Amino acid sequence: MFKMNFLRWRTRKALKKNESLRSSLPYKQAINMGILFSVEDKQKHIEIKEFIHRLEQDGKKVYILEYLPLKGENYEFMFDFFTQKELNFWGEITSEAAQKFISIPFDYLYYIDRKSNPLALYLLAGSKARCRVGRYHEDETHFFELMIEQNGTNKGLMETMFKYTQQLR
After folding, report:
1. Is the model's pTM score more than 0.90?
2. Using one digit for the tens of pLDDT, what is the confidence trace for 131-169?
3. CA torsion 47→53→56→58, rounded to 10°?
4. Residue 57: left (phi > 0), alpha (psi -120 to 50), or beta?
């Protein structure tokens, strides 16, 4: 599929071209938090909402973007989303919500997927986030400043991400 080949090429190019300042800010000083994830099921949706609530209780402003797979259900229509239909022939994501999301200079951007999504990786490559946090995958170390090795549930991944970012000073 040409689209996906172009997407991979654009992702590599975005990684090389992105000159955003990368550093971890102490969690207590962090204000803007981003959450990027792929819709899977109702349980993950509930767990994401709990994670958002936890961050908001700490006074953080949270921005959310979800990837909605074809035939996936958009639970409660709470979050901005993008779909594969917004990937053009040349491998560009044309979603206005996605473009806005990657332009925000998050203090922390959490990518909450256990299995990698090439469209999400493209957004991570172009993101202006200071510290991108995601699950450890050996071949994706250049997408993140903090990687969590966690093979359990999505909830466990979020709890571990929260624990480690809270400890940053």
Report:
1. yes
2. 999 999 988 999 999 999 988 899 999 999 999 999 987
3. -90
4. alpha
Domains and CATH numbers, the chain: 2-166 (3.40.50)
Whether 11 contacts 118, CB under 8 Å? yes
Could you tell me if 28 and 55 are in contact, meaning their C-beta atoms sit under 8 angstroms apart? no
